[in-house]
Predict the 3D structure of the following.
Amino acid sequence: MSDTTKLTDDMVLPFMIEESGINGRIVRMGKSIDTILKRHPEVPYPAQVLLGQFLTLGAAMATALKYDGVFTLQAKGDGPVSMMVADVTSDGNVRGYIKVDKDLPDYDDCMRAPVLFLLEKGYMAFTVDQGKDMERYQGIVEIRGKTLEEAVGHYFAQSDQLASRVHLAAGKGEDGNWRSSCIMLQKMPEEGGNIMKSMEGEALEEWMRAVTLMKSATEEEMTDEKLGASDLLYRLFHEDGVRIYDTKPLDINCRCSREKVSGALLQLNADDLEHAMENDKIAVTCEFCNTTYEFNDQDIAQMKTKH
């Protein structure tokens, strides 16, 4: 076991249940998720919880893939939450945002069934972007279910090559800081083909047992700062044996910059630039990190000269 397995926050810890050979990973986010969610205090609490779960899910899904670039998980709905985005780079940098367009319905309903009452009808998609010279891969599925766990379960069910289930938690602790966690289990078919057809008898029983044990983790355990990820995994799966591997750290690092915003402004025509002016300046705020970039007439003139 390397020292990296001692990380308790902002990391992904892969593991394997030795009795069944089922693979998984646990994601724990502390300071990173707290920073992201506190940048948008105007977002209602149930929507913040949903975004916290969504970002942690995105990190779990991204680290299951081999890619060099950006993994994006996106959900669009026609409810109060019209969009959620989670970006995870191959270097482990995470960013995300949520767009709330309407007043939220009953608080308890939103907490009990956030997908049903916040997103309502819509779709979930993921994209792997490895640069302009590489083919972009995308998968899209209709949103179904009451919770994000159910919705992503439907997403995974579209694949006959890989069985996947997740368990999610996000919330504020007594100290007022946000924490979130995701446990993901995955199993490949023994000899290719359809995973569900290959999981019969003992293999299916092992899979259902692993899922049941995973789901037994309480929200308090999932987000407990004092309970390490490896300790939680041992608590859940010790009877079947659990082997843990080296962790991958996660961090927050928005990819916005003044240079990128300048490039976007240069694509606008003179009328659009004039329309965007307010109090003799253009202010552009990044939806991810809430950083605002301001440009006056002189800045825009210099941009055009350099361009």
